[in-house]
Amino acid sequence: MVLWWAELRGPVGQVVESSYWAWTYASERLRSWAQNRGVGGCGVYVASFPASHLHKPDLEPPPRDMAEAHQAVGFVPSLTPDGADPELAGQVLRNIYLSGLWSWKRHLSRFRNDFLSGVLPASPFSWLFLFSAIQLAWFLQLDPSLGLMEKIKELLPDWAGQHHRLRGVLAAALFASCLWGALIFTLHVALRLLLSYHGWLLEPHGAMSSATKTWLALVRIFSGRRPMLFSYQRSLPRQPVPSVQDTVRKVSDWWEEFVYLRSRSPLMVNSNYYLTDFLYVTPTPLQAARAGNAVHALLLYRHRLQRQEISPTLLMGMRPLCSAQYERIFNTTRVPGVQKDHLRHLRDSQHVAVLHRGRFFRVGTHSPHGLLPPRALEQQFQRILDDPSPACPHEEHLAALTAAPRGLWAQLRQTLKTRAAHALEAVEGAAFFVSLDPEPAGLTREDPAGSLDAYAHALLAGRGHDRWFDKSFTLIIFSNGKLGLSVEHSWADCPISGHMWEFTLATECFQLGYSADGHCKGCPAPALPPPQRLQWDLPDQVHLSISLALRGAKALSGNIDCHIFPFSHFGKSFIRHCHLSSDSFVQMALQLAHFRDRGQFCLTYESAMTRLFLEGRTETVRSCTREACSFVRAMEDKEKTDPQCLVLFRAAVDKHQALLKAAMSGQGVDRHLFALYVVSRFLHMQSPFLAQVYSEQWQLSTSQIPVQQMHLFDVHNYPDYVSSGGGFGPADAHGYGVSYIFMGDDAITFHISSKKSSTKTDSRRLGRHIEAALLDVASLFQAGQRMQRRFSGSAEEDSGHRCGFLSSKTLNFKTPTDSEPFQ
To answer: Which of 471, 464, 402 is nearest to 433 (CA)?
Structure first.
């Protein structure tokens, strides 16, 4: 008799099912093998093999989401002259026990979190209080149920007249549970009605009416204490659909939405965006150490996410935003399709996929005891860096397929799925993708501006073949310890990945920290098995496609012009001193800068979140309004005085604020127009109006990256250790992509992109116009006139004044503190 035991990698909770399937299939395979080779007797042959080798046409394969659980079982063979006797090693039994225990813990923890978030604003203690109160009333011969408990007792078994008191207790418990559930439902309905009020958005900036104060007090009462991440999901209202009449009254131009999953264009530059490291400091120059701490911090965030220990985002400290987008940060891949892509999300994954010098590795992130410590992860990454083996033919450029048009990649992926299923599954089923770049990046003394631009370009596009653009995000660590993030856009918007990135930077630098020699704290784990090198069986027909995809990716990468521009003359504190919205201030400055750059106005896109509603994402704010145009023309008219320009500026800001609030409260027009366009195409209806507005392009695409967790950073004592935002590609061939982030209170960092093939755009030139425009707008206020004079005086002495942000702290590789985390 011959038996095999298969090692399957699948999500937690499916160990028994997958093992049974593997055992059944393996037994069939072994019987066939034994018959063909004449093997008999009672010997047992045992092997461990990956799930990708288990597929068989006449058997049902395991579900696709079974792909990435940790190793649960195995056998140790012992051969004898009479055959083979199995020895079930103690370590194997221990692994089986720990795997099952961990699986049950995960299920129980998930059930507990879902229950606690579902009953908010109530709690299990409130049920106990209600039950105790009913029991007390019953003891005092009072019936708060008005006879219902007696009817419940009649429905319960009488147990031959015994246990009369127990029946009373059970009846009270059932009544208390029903009453408790009804109260929770009532609270959820009341909270949903309260959250449907958006009058607070329409009030003047800095003012709050009595109605809004009353609303805030009621929301506070009905929101409960200590909410979990998904606690408010059942209470958020669904986004309303504006009436057609309201939409027609507002419409002037067309908004072109990125149709993510139906877009057939390459993801690189067109769909992905990037997030940067600290600009001026690097906690350690050791690449493997930075990777170890960063990966550990990211997985700590995932652990908190799974346990719903991340607090929901609250506007005004009380109004919750939808948290649905957080669910697919990890274990997610955008799978290409011929007509449409789809997102594949696994419940869990116990490894990361790593790319270094064209070679792919699978690095386990967990042991039977839990998450690997940073020093152990550093050791695994260092093993990859020290591995001298070369990349196989065409393996080095394989990732360029993810930067190819989606239809082409979808067809080639079917071939890889057949010939290299195990390697493809290891990449697509990873928690996330890690790229260990062999080149340094970041700010340098020799060329401050140029080095930052190259850093942004490396994060957004790289070399076209060193990122797996399908993954939800790729962690990029450069050879000098600098890091960054490349994020695929379809699964969520920037504030979600930005929230994760803030936690990662703060945790890996301030809480985990580094030793004096730059390594991760702790001790190595030499007993860990080395990372698994992935093998790709690439047929000849794929080689030509890889070469074509690489050529297209390099052309797309070489055409993108990136520019990081730190503005340090003033920041949010000055704008707040002027009693203005910081976002509106910058948006009007961008209109002035773009007009000076191109000599004309253009259709301008600014993203606004709609997460006030269930599963809300974004809406468009059309920043180029008539009021903004009047302000810009006045600024360029030498006959206009500063007071006249200031009046027009405030009118433009007020209009922008009104549009922003309308978009956030579900009263925007562009998502509505897009829905009308989709319906017209589905019904084969010709609409000259929709056809006209659909053809218009967004030549200026803008977005603010919010800082959501300032408590994680000590801006006053360590101003250089703050998030510096990120950027994205332009939406139009002759346009700009501009994102900005307020770094603390006294600085703004801009990320500008354009295409080199356009003769109308230049990212650095627009950066110069943005700086001048910000100072010119600030000079309309008395406090800003001094800055304008200082800027004018220094510009003649240093034509490269914007590079003057480089200081002696640039090459600092020291963590500010290794003992006290920022809270």
So the answer is: 471
Catalytic center residues: 489
Rounded Cα gap, residues 640 and 625, in angstroms: 20
Bridge pairing between strands 433-436 and 473-477 = parallel
Please give the structure tokens belonging to residue 390.
Answer: 């070369």
CB 552 within 8 A of CB 404: yes
Neighbours of 338 (CB within 10 A): 13
pLDDT on residue 807: 41
Q: What is the pLDDT of residues 622-660, one digit of tens each?
A: 999 999 999 999 999 999 999 999 999 999 999 999 999
Q: Which two tokens stand for residue 549?
A: 């995809």
Q: Which residues contact 171 (CB under 8 A, 6 or more apart)?
A: 149, 150, 152, 153, 156
Identity at 416, one-letter amino acid code: L
User: How many Å apart are CA 752 and CA 302, to the nearest integer?
Assistant: 31
Confirm if 449 and 243 have CB atoms less than 8 A apart: no
Please choose, from the candidates 580, 582, 616, 586, the residue with its C-alpha nearest in 3D space to the C-alpha of residue 604: 586
Mapped onto helix, strand or coil, the DSSP state of residue 788 is helix
Instruction: Check residue 814 and give its pLDDT.
Output: 54
HEC letters along 307-319: CCCCCCCEECCCE
Residues of the chain scoring pLDDT < 70: 1-92, 95, 158-164, 206, 242, 244-250, 252-259, 783-823
In the chain, the domains with their CATH numbers are 15-112 (no CATH), 121-223 (no CATH), 273-310+326-560 (3.30.559.70), 568-665+697-797 (3.30.559.10)
C-alpha–C-alpha distance, residues 150 and 588, integer Å: 70
Q: Are 761 and 697 in contact (CB under 8 A)?
A: no
Give the closest residue to 60 by CA, choosing from 103, 13, 17: 17
Please list, in sequence order, all residues whose beta carbon lies within 8 angstroms of the beta carbon of residue 568, skipping any fewer than 6 positions away.
Answer: 746, 747, 805
